[in-house]
Amino acid sequence: MSHRPPLAVVQAQLDAYNAKDIEALLATYSPKAEQYATGGELLAQGYEQMRPRFLARFAEPNLHARLLSRQVVGNMVADLELIERTFPEGVGSIEMLCVYEVVDGRILRATFATGEKKLFAECSTGRPDSVASRMKAKK
Question: What is the pTM of this model?
Answer without folding.
Answer: 0.85
